[in-house]
Amino acid sequence: MEVLKAISLRKYFKTRKKSRGSDGLVRAVDGIDFSLHEDSIFALVGESGCGKSTVARLVLKLLKPTSGSIQFKGHDTIEFDKRALKRFRKSVQIIFQDPFASLNPRRTVYNTIAEPLKIHNLATRSGMKDAVSEILGKVGLRPDILNRYPHEFSGGQRQRICIARALAVSPEVIVADEPLSALDVSIQGQIINLLTDLKNETHIAFLFISHDLKVVHYFSDTVGVMYLGKIVEYAKTEDLFEKPLHPYTVVLMESAPNVEPERYGKMHSAPLKGEVPSPLEIPLGCPFHPRCSKKFDPCDRIVPELQASQGRLVSCHLWNPY
Amino acid sequence: MPLLDVRDLTIGFTSADHRVPVVSNLNFSIEESEIFGLVGESGCGKSITALSILGILPQNAYAQGTIIFKDTNLIELDPESMRKIRGNEISMIFQEPMTSLNPVLTVGYQIAEVLMTHRGMKKKAAMDRAVDLLGAVQMPSPEIRLKEYPHQLSGGMRQRVMIAMAVACSPSLVIADEPTTALDVTIQAQILELLHSLRQERNVSILLITHDLGIIAENTSRVAIMYAGRFMEMAVTEAIFSNTKHPYTKGLLESLPIEKGVPLNPIPGFVPRADELPSGCRFSDRCSYVIDRCRVMEPEFIEVSSGHFSRCIRTEEIAWKS
Fold first, then answer.
1. pLDDT for residue A263
2. What is the phi/psi pair of residue A250, to 5°?
């Protein structure tokens, strides 16, 4: 069942100054569509500034879209009244990137996790402590930490507390915005296992935002690759990694360092020149064409549409001759 | 003779009544024009090792042992002589280029300052040289960027400025402490390629500190794996991955997602604090191969085959290939 759906989602931010060749609008998210199904994981991949965290905020209604909509189980979230919004907040939770910044330093673990239970009336006052302990158990923490503060924990333990807070209200969707990137390698492995177990037990749908292709390959079912506010390739995870079609997806995969034996001591030659253009001045035509090694005649004039090709969606003139 | 030869290096902090060692008895050497990798999780002592080579440890820290660089023991060197080496013959590239550049000086001046200090160049000549250096690190339009401030540059460009500063005086050794951690993968690949070309063209040795095993696999010739202030394994890079001899290295590799559906086998627990180390082997409380003897005495760092060192009493008896 489809739980969450984004339709032509756009978010433009106004900047104060208009400069030549720019209308002063940052097109952070520029018309993206995706759907998230029950018991599945949709990953958004891309480099910093591509708009993936803005998508997370739009989905959670922390930001208002410029146009387009987000549907939760078929209902437009824009039109939610106060009661519907409260139910929505219970159903959709988030795990942030930095567990050092996303826990209130003045609250004990107990207070952090009990708060959502109180707000949504999910436990009685006498049963609260047991309820919190049970949730901590799900993320592999012992109940004897209830009265401790965030500064007493390592990064991995804090991320577990953040996951426990998200799980407390038994959500249907969890938005995870780079939940691993602040953690050490061995701790990343632990958290990936924890998230996989949770998904298998609870059938929660995940919107998983990451820049790490290895993790995305391992964890997700469907992937959207974002570049400058647009999805450039949208495919089943196996298909995408089996054969990436969009030239940007190809260079992302080649750029990521890897421990596979064939890459030992490989003299590095960077697959991609230049930097991501400013979202204030998105290039004409295909936004990726100034960096693309495969560009040809129409690329600098005509914006490619996201169209079906080889069992997926891709926006590139190579695959979808206009 | 190696360019840098570190013997029995111990680094620690002094508090009111006692000393807490954080790095113990490191032995390693870096050859000319070699990229030597140093891997470990946060808090294992990699960065403090770098700082001790440059003689910029915090006030309350101490270093013992010898660090021989071109016939000079850097540990015994007086501050004035050390200043002449630092930034000149040994230089450093830090992780976060935003916080390690001065925000109120132009990047051109910051590069020129190195040359004025160590080479006694006049400002005009030094600024001209700075343009060449920015060109050498492949900065687009170097004459214009010269007059800009760090905030006007992207993360990748700032790291290019850091590298230009580091190589301004043609050093023999560059210490790069997580030089690409703050960058996107495509930019990371460009910066690593740049480090390689500098090594080849200028015959520089690089001490590359990172937590990313993929970067190590692709870019270094030898590598040391560090845990809780000790080297656990050291070998040529290929042997570390294909012929692993230490449970910690094995655990790190098994924390990485490789194939979908195969559960990860990450190291349990977390890195102990420097003042709460387990008795015996420092990895004993997290090791899946632990036996009673491990908790009694700390193992020696033994050469198991030519140039391949491991600190584990069970190195010989465990069948390492999984």
1. 67
2. -60, -45
For A282-312, b/e burial (b = at least 16 CB within 10 A) is beebbbbbbbbeebeeebeeebbebeebeeb
Q: Which residues contact B76 (CB under 8 A, 6 or more apart)?
A: none
How far does CA A128 lie from the centroid of its chain?
Answer: 31
In angstroms, the separation between the Cα of residue A121 and the nearest Cα of chain B is: 34
A86: closest CA among A20, A152, A169? A169
Residues of chain B with CATH 3.40.50.300: 4-220
Q: Under 8 Å CB-to-CB from B143, ≥6 apart: which residues?
A: B131
C-alpha–C-alpha distance, residues A304 and A281, integer Å:
18
Question: In chain B, at which residue ranges do the beta strands (DSSP E only) sit?
Answer: 4-14, 19-30, 35-39, 61-69, 72-73, 90-93, 173-177, 205-210, 222-227, 230-236, 302-305, 308-310
Strands B61-69 and B72-73: antiparallel
Determine the Cα–Cα distance for residues B115 and B137; give it in Å rounded to an integer. 16
Is the Cα torsion angle A295, A300, A301, A305 positive or negative in sign? positive
Partner residue opposite B257 with nearest CB, options A192, A273, A274: A192
pLDDT tens sequence across A197-235? 999 899 899 999 998 898 999 999 999 999 999 999 999
Residue A159: how many CB atoms within 10 A of its CB? 29
Which of B184, B218, B237 comes nearest A268 by C-beta?
B218
- Looking at the complex, report in whole angstroms how far the Cα of residue A75 sits from the nearest Cα belonging to chain B: 34
Contact A211, A252 (CB under 8 A): no
Angle at Cα B114 formed by Cα B166 and Cα B210, nearest 5°? 20
Beta carbons of A275 and B157 less than 8 Å apart: yes
| Dist. CA A301–CA B194, nearest whole Å | 33
Q: Which fold has domain B4-220?
A: Rossmann fold (3.40.50)
One-letter amino acid identity for A84?
A
Closest by alpha carbon to B30, among B43, B12, B57, B49?
Answer: B49
C-beta atoms of B186 and A255 within 8 A: yes
Q: Tens digit of pLDDT for each residue in A10-33?
A: 999 988 766 666 678 889 999 999
Q: Mutating which of B98, B218, B252, B254 best tests the A interface, going by the most A Cβ atoms within 10 A?
A: B218
pLDDT at A111 over 80: yes
DSSP one-letter code for A124: -
The residue among B315 and A71 whose pLDDT is bigger is A71
Q: How far apart are CA B159 and CA B107, in angstroms?
A: 11
Residue of chain A whose Cα is closest to the Cα of B140:
A274
Among A97, A100, A197, A275, pick the best mutation site for testing chain B contact (most B Cβ within 10 A): A275
Please answer whether residues A230 and A316 qualify as being in contact, where contact means their C-beta atoms are separated by less than 8 angstroms: no
How many angstroms separate the CA of residue A1 from the nearest CA in chain B?
23
With CB atoms and an 8 Å threshold, state whether A214 touches B270.
Answer: no
Residue B71's SS3 state is: coil
Q: Residue A261 is nearest to which of B193, B221, B242, comparing CB atoms?
A: B242
CA–CA distance, A240 with A231 (Å, rounded to integer): 13
